[in-house]
């Protein structure tokens, strides 16, 4: 990758009218009386583009893939109506823990993001941010018909139609709404893909980063967050 | 030294934050005494997908603002460009956790405007479906209140029994979460063979569960300590804030559409919604626990009283060319959270002119929650939200 | 409810009274008197609860219909007060002082219909939509399908049909 591509573009931008107030440059009065200059976009956020993680060679990668596949930690972010079928999965009847799948409260600890149903534009913004904060390798499971082609919200002005234009999707689960068994089957499919070394969508996201960002910015009108969120 | 003050369980909150003359705290963010944090939308303690903008002083909340809109799909707009029968699959997704009241209010509004009389058997089946929906959501929300105080066992237990009720729904309607059972003019089918027997078996499990959850949660000292006296809603807020359902009944005000405006077959059933006056989180949870018993009893009564067969659907015009004369109406029913109503305006065409859903969460999660969270601890936020049973998809539709 | 309606009709400029159900009536009132009627109902006729406030877009007539639906917690009756306001200059007197939850309804109407309620708290803030730069979406002249197709580029291959014409072409192709 070219070196100048790695450089952050904030300095090139004019004053952004959508910049969130907490991200603006400001001087803060410290408790000891001194004044500290804070530039949150520089100080708090990463300056680098996401990088492609190259697979290691032979048996090492196979071993790592096996380990990854057997501990899928799901981010507990119910983005749409599909989230109603996730609690039953944690209960004895379906019990996803036996497959090594468990829920996590923060993106920093999870590597699977279940997009549970339609995404409104407002949630898409949060979902992108949560996804980018997850450490690689990371996977996305898209739950429900509305993530595939809009489902029954195909004509809604506030929900996206195809998820794969904004976020990289590893496994789709069709249905409205998919049963918990379907979700378990989706996890099984994801495991298969990981073990075969085919769940490489996070790398695809890094490769086609500009394309994804263009698509995202096209519909998120007030882009008041940094481009690199990790 | 005043030992009592030193070992006081609850800190003395009279000193901070400073109150202005209007009774509101003086919030000066640059003074370093206050901190602004966001809770949600990605947060395990949030009911559904919404967020709270909290200003805290220490761990005490001094100001709260609810932000909704993360689940907005524009149903009210979408239904304006769908025919009446096409509105049904759209409408049930308005509140995901409890879809049957959505179906019923839309069917009731259409029937009221078109002047359709629903057959006797269909009314009984509708009552049954609504009570089963209430049962399945209460099996989640009653132990869910314990879950907010890190009492996870009840939640797992309740969810297991809820799954059995969903199995009965599957038998009756074919769907696990979305049923589309109540359609204009009636219902889609009769009870399957042996349904009553299997339902009775499940109800026996619920009976046991009701006793067990009483021992597990309501006599638990941690639960009592934390839930009692938390987030009290005074009686005079009921009307000004628009409080409905179990939340209002916990404050001693009888708000139950099943009693005040008996719809379907509720006038023929014998039940008395529980009311109490403490109006804190414990009381609200207790009201729901009593509701659970009432619901079990009601399902038994319905199954005993309902006719075995008969007409289940009134004659309607061809649904694809169904034009409903100009008019407007407001139809409501009692969901597990409170009064759930639909305001519908028609203009003589084959599509509704305007549909407006009125759910209790709309007022509970906005004006009321903002007020209740003031002076609460951050750790109690989830408990207060669950006790109000806020359901974000019904706020923003 | 008949006495109540007679009383209202003698005090306010009303029209189009409809008794929809036993416990539900609708009545239209002039815009200038709307808030005073709602206040009168709340303070003197025990209609203490606000069930909902919503708007209907009558594009053909060029008006918005606002409906204040009030409920009476003592005898459980409901009355819907309709107010017609001009569509081009959609402004209505704010009534946030009457109910604490009125503010939320007014914020929604401002965002979804573009009806302004000057003086209502937090009215300028985004309520549901974020960064919306088009016409208020609940207005009748906003075409949601066209907007969705242009903005969210649908997946090729997805078809949607009008059910009436589609079924006719499938089942009775010769008619």
What's the CATH topology label of the largest domain in chain B?
Cytochrome-c3 Hydrogenase, chain B
What is the CATH-assigned architecture of the largest domain in chain A? 3-Layer(aba) Sandwich
The helix content of chain A, as a percent range, equals: 25-40%
**Residue-averaged pLDDT of chain B, rounded?**
85
What is the domain tally of chain B? 2
How much β-strand is present in the residues of chain B? 5-15%
Chains forming the largest contact:
B-C, 43 and 40 residues
Order of helices and strands of chain B: HEEEHHHHHEEHHHHHHEEEHHH
CATH class term of the largest domain in chain A: Alpha Beta
Number of strands of chain B: 8
Number of DSSP helical runs of chain A:
8
Structural account:
The complex is a heterotrimer of chains A (230), B (397) and C (175). Chain A is an alpha/beta fold. Chain A folds into 2 domains: 4-43, no CATH class; 72-219, Rossmann fold (3-Layer(aba) Sandwich). Chain A is 32% helix and 13% strand. Chain A is built from 8 helices and 7 strands, in the order ββααβαββαβαβααα. In chain A, strands 5-6-7 form a 3-stranded parallel sheet. In chain A, strands 1-2 form a two-stranded antiparallel ribbon. A two-stranded parallel ribbon of chain A has the order 3-4. The longest helix of chain B is centred in the middle third of the chain and has 28 residues, at 120-147. Chain B is built from 15 helices and 8 strands. Chain B folds into 2 domains: 3-67, no CATH class; 75-396, Cytochrome-c3 Hydrogenase, chain B. The N and C termini of chain B lie far apart (57 Å). The radius of gyration of chain B is 22 Å and the shape is globular. With 397 residues, chain B is α+β, with helices and mostly antiparallel strands. In chain B, the strands form 3 sheets. A 3-stranded antiparallel sheet of chain B has the order 1-2-3. Chain C is α+β, with helices and mostly antiparallel strands and 175 residues long. Chain C has one domain: NADH:ubiquinone oxidoreductase Nqo5 subunit (Beta Polymerase, domain 2), CATH 3.30.460. Chain C is built from 5 helices and 5 strands; from the N terminus they run H-E-E-H-E-E-E-H-H-H. Chain C has helices spanning 2-11, 34-44, 102-112, 144-151, 163-171; strands at 14-21, 24-29, 49-58, 63-71, 78-86. Chain C has a 5-stranded mixed sheet with strand order 1-2-5-4-3, covered by helices on one side. The model of chain C has no long low-confidence stretch (mean pLDDT 86). The chains are: A alpha/beta (230), B alpha+beta (397), C alpha+beta (175). Chains in contact: A-B, A-C, B-C. The interface between A and B is medium-sized, with 37 and 33 residues.
């Amino acid at each position: 990758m070219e070196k100048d591509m790695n450089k952050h573009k904030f300095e090139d931008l004019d004053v952004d009218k959508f910049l969130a107030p907490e991200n603006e440059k400001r001087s803060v009065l410290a408790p000891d009386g001194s004044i500290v200059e804070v530039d949150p976009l520089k100080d708090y956020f990463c300056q680098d583009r996401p990088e492609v993680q190259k697979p290691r060679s032979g048996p090492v990668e196979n071993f790592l893939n096996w380990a990854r596949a057997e501990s899928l930690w799901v981010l507990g972010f119910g983005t749409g109506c599909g989230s109603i079928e996730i609690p039953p999965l944690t209960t004895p009847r379906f019990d996803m823990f036996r497959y090594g799948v468990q829920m996590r409260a923060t993106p920093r600890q999870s590597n699977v993001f279940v997009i549970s149903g339609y995404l409104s534009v407002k949630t898409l913004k949060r979902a992108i941010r949560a996804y980018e904060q997850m450490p690689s390798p990371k996977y996305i499971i898209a739950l429900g018909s509305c993530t595939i082609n809009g489902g029954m919200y195909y004509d809604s002005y506030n929900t996206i139609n195809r998820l794969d234009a904004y976020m990289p999707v590893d496994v789709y689960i069709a249905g409205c709404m998919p049963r918990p068994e379907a979700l378990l089957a989706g996890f099984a499919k994801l495991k298969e893909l990981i073990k075969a070394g085919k769940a490489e969508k996070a790398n695809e996201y890094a490769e086609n980063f500009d394309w994804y960002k263009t698509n995202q910015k096209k519909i998120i009108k007030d882009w008041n967050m940094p481009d690199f969120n990790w | 030294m005043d030992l009592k003050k030193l070992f006081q369980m609850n800190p003395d909150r009279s000193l901070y934050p400073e109150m202005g003359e209007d009774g509101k705290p003086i919030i000066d963010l640059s003074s370093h005494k206050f901190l602004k944090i966001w809770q949600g939308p990605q947060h395990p303690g949030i009911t559904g997908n919404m967020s709270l903008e909290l200003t805290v002083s220490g761990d005490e909340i001094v100001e709260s603002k609810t932000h909704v809109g993360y689940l907005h799909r524009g149903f009210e707009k979408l239904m304006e460009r769908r025919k009446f029968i096409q509105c049904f699959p759209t409408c049930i997704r308005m509140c995901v956790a409890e879809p049957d009241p959505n179906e019923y209010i839309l069917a009731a509004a259409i029937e009221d405007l078109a002047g359709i009389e629903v057959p006797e058997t269909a009314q009984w089946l509708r009552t049954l479906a609504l009570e089963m929906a209430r049962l399945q959501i209460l099996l989640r929300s009653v132990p869910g209140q314990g879950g907010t105080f890190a009492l996870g066992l009840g939640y797992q237990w309740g969810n297991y029994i809820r799954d059995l009720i969903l199995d009965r729904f599957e038998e009756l309607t074919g769907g696990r979460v979305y049923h589309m059972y109540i359609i204009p003019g009636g219902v889609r089918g009769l009870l399957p063979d042996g349904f009553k027997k299997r339902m009775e078996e499940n109800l026996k499990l619920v009976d046991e569960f009701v006793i067990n959850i009483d021992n597990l949660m309501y006599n638990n000292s941690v639960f009592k300590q934390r839930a009692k006296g938390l987030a009290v809603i005074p009686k005079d807020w009921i009307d000004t804030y628009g409080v409905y359902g179990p939340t209002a009944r916990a404050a001693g005000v009888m708000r139950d559409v099943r009693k005040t405006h008996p719809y379907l077959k509720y006038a023929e059933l014998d039940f008395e919604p529980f009311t109490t006056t403490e109006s804190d989180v414990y009381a609200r949870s207790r009201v729901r626990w009593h509701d659970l018993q009432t619901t079990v009893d009601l399902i038994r009564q319905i199954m005993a009283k309902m006719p075995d067969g008969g007409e289940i659907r009134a004659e309607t015009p061809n649904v694809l060319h169904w034009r409903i004369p100009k008019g407007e109406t407001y139809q409501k029913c009692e969901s597990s959270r409170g009064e759930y109503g639909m305001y519908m305006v028609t203009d003589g065409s084959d599509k509704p002119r305007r549909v407006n859903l009125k759910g209790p969460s709309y007022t509970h999660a906005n004006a009321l929650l903002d007020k209740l969270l003031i002076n609460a601890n951050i750790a109690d936020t989830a408990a207060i939200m669950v006790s109000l049973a806020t359901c974000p998809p019904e706020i923003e539709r | 409810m008949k006495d109540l309606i007679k009383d209202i009709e003698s005090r306010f400029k009303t029209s189009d009274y409809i008794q929809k159900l036993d416990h539900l009536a609708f009545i239209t009132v002039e815009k200038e008197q709307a808030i005073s009627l709602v206040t009168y109902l709340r303070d003197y006729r025990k209609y203490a609860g606000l069930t909902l406030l919503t708007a209907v877009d009558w594009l053909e007539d060029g008006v918005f219909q606002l409906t204040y639906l009030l409920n009476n917690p003592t005898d459980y009756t409901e009355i819907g007060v309709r107010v017609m306001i001009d569509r081009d200059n959609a402004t209505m007197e704010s009534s946030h002082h009457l109910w604490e939850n009125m503010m939320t309804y007014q914020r929604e109407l401002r965002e979804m219909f573009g009806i302004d309620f000057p003086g209502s708290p937090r009215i300028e803030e985004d309520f549901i939509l974020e960064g919306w730069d088009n016409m208020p979406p609940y207005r009748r002249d906003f075409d949601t399908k066209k907007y969705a197709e242009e903005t969210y580029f649908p997946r090729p291959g997805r078809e949607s049909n009008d059910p009436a014409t589609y079924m006719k072409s499938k089942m009775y192709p010769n008619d």
